[in-house]
Design goal:
Strand content: 5-15%
Shape: globular
CATH topology of the largest domain: Rossmann fold
CATH class of the largest domain: Alpha Beta
Radius of gyration: 25 Å
Strand order of the largest sheet: 5-4-3-6-7-9-8-10-13
Number of domains: 3
CATH superfamily of the largest domain: Vaccinia Virus protein VP39
Helix content: 40-55%
Structural class: alpha/beta
Length: 510
């Protein structure tokens, strides 16, 4: 068994992934993802259904009564969509059509899944023999019965697979997947026990799932939080809907462009948790020059949506609401196109609460250095101490452990170190008294921040000597540039090979 300090025993998930990945053959990971995750979802709801079916049958009830399943919060699965039917037909040449029909039948009987499930298994390009092998593989694991639901077996498999697909797809896959450790930091720091949680760029739903886990692990009631989200990519929106459905999370997740078609216009959330696209230059900001959201701190530049997202988050906060989100490090110091003035306005309006500098190599989809922002509508909050006129800076760049040759992870102890520092600084009950720790954290006054021209890079405040910081930045930069150069060489070699092959195919000598 392979152990991982942060994620527990991953031997089962890893073995299942390795077996499933062998069946991928030459299929693109982005395409294969929906094949596998769709079948895993189908196995889960079929397992849960069959267990209730047998219970009703044993009690001499009518196991084909749909209302019996609704009462137990279990999806109704029509006969042709039940897993044993798929398993019995796994070797048939028309298995793709059988699966598509099963998905369609489930959607018709369960309104919350309408338009969500993948229905493209009959396409000619999908190897039906391998499809049958995937069904056989998934048949070997119990997912939806009560015992395995309590262990969250499906949740573990689903989350692990999402991470592996993100890694396999690189930049494309990482667009919708936020590393679990980063989600955990955001959730542990915000502590969303009760109220409305909102993520306007929710990807596959990781923020919501960790919020639910947080409430459960601290003895709270899941029903005390309400989930709202929006996702612009329809395929990812489907993944999110399935990801939440398998856990029974009641949610309002909409599909559409948050900036231009805000589906939750009137929502005022108690917590906003998000990881928006980094430095998005294609957000059609020219259509939103007079938007009400920019009244908070200023009109964001057309070339970068970062401060558009920040102001969108703040716009949707309730009077006592707080937000935690991921941004590229450029947001901390950039002065181009008016960004410095927007950042200054956010600080001087006393909205910025805390900044965390993250280690490099945490993400699957980018080498861009990232940070966490925490903002609050009410820094005189009655639950905590009055924090007006100061900002907490945490430099976590030295934290993290390598989990493979190119990725880092934060341990649970490191996550707790960061979150407890914030809780102590906020003056939460039961926490140790906050103290600045040279090289790690510093509570800086606005006077100090003004001396740095409203730049929010934690390294400027936490007390690291300039020489040490410069060496550290140089090493990080060199690692990043070396890796980037290596990737460019690989891409160049691949392109040269393709050009030669194409020229050769039309008779050109190369």
């Amino acid at each position: 068994m392979v152990k991982n300090k942060n994620n527990g025993d991953l031997g089962f998930e890893q073995k299942l992934w390795q077996a499933a990945d062998k069946l991928r053959n030459n299929m693109d990971a982005a395409e294969y993802k929906h094949v596998v995750l769709g079948l895993i979802f189908l196995k889960y709801i079929s397992d849960a259904f069959v267990e209730v079916y047998e219970e009703i049958k044993a009690e001499n009830g009518d196991p084909e009564d749909i209302d019996e399943y609704k009462a137990k919060n279990v999806f109704w699965v029509p006969k042709k969509a039940r897993w044993d039917n798929l398993q019995n037909n796994a070797k048939q040449p028309d298995i793709g059509t059988i699966i598509d029909d099963a998905m369609d039948a489930i959607e018709k009987e369960n309104s919350s899944l309408k338009g969500v499930l993948p229905k493209d298994y009959a396409r000619p390009g999908l190897d039906k023999q391998r499809l049958g092998q995937i069904i056989d593989l998934i048949s070997s694991i119990a997912l939806g019965d009560r015992e395995n639901r309590s262990k969250d077996v499906l949740g573990r498999v689903y989350e692990y697979f999402l991470g592996q697909f993100a890694s396999a797809e690189g930049k494309k896959g990482g667009q919708f997947y936020t590393p679990r450790c980063i989600v955990k930091i955001l959730v542990e720091m915000l502590e969303p026990y009760t109220g409305r949680i909102y993520d306007p760029c929710c990807g596959s739903g990781g923020m919501f799932i960790q919020s639910e886990k947080f409430v459960e692990s601290h003895g709270g009631r899941i029903g005390d939080i309400s989930v709202y989200g929006q996702e612009s990519n329809q395929t990812t929106w489907r993944l999110c809907k399935m990801n939440l459905a398998i856990r029974g999370i009641d949610s309002n997740i909409q599909w559409g462009d948050t900036f231009h078609d805000d589906k939750h216009q009137d929502l005022k959330a108690d917590f906003v948790i998000a990881n928006p696209p980094f430095n998005d230059s294609d957000w059609k900001g020219e259509q939103l020059r007079n938007d009400i959201r920019w009244e908070i701190a200023g009109v964001p530049p057309l070339s970068n949506a970062n401060f558009g997202w920040v102001q969108h988050f703040i716009h949707h906060l309730a009077p006592h609401g707080t937000a935690g989100f991921v941004l590229a490090n450029g947001s901390l110091s950039s002065n181009s196109s008016g960004e410095g003035e927007i950042r200054k306005n956010l600080i001087e309006k006393d909205i910025v609460d805390c900044i965390v500098a993250l280690p490099s190599q945490l993400f699957y989809n980018t080498q861009i250095p990232a940070c966490l922002w925490f903002v609050s509508r009410d820094r005189q909050n009655h639950n905590f101490r009055d924090r007006r006129g100061e900002i907490l800076f945490i430099d976590a760049r030295k934290l993290g452990i390598m989990i493979d040759r190119s990725h880092k992870d934060l341990t649970q102890e490191e996550i707790e170190k960061i979150s407890k520092t914030y809780h102590s600084w906020r003056g939460e009950k039961g926490q140790e008294k906050y103290e600045d720790i040279p090289g790690f954290c510093k509570s800086a006054t606005f006077e100090e921040i003004r001396k740095h021209n409203h730049i929010l890079t934690p390294g400027r405040y936490v007390g690291i000597e300039e020489q040490v910081e410069d060496e550290e930045l140089f090493e990080d930069k060199m690692k990043s540039l070396t890796q980037e150069l290596s990737e460019q060489f690989k891409e160049s070699d691949k392109l040269e090979k393709e050009i030669k092959e194409n020229l050769g195919s039309i008779g050109w000598k190369v």
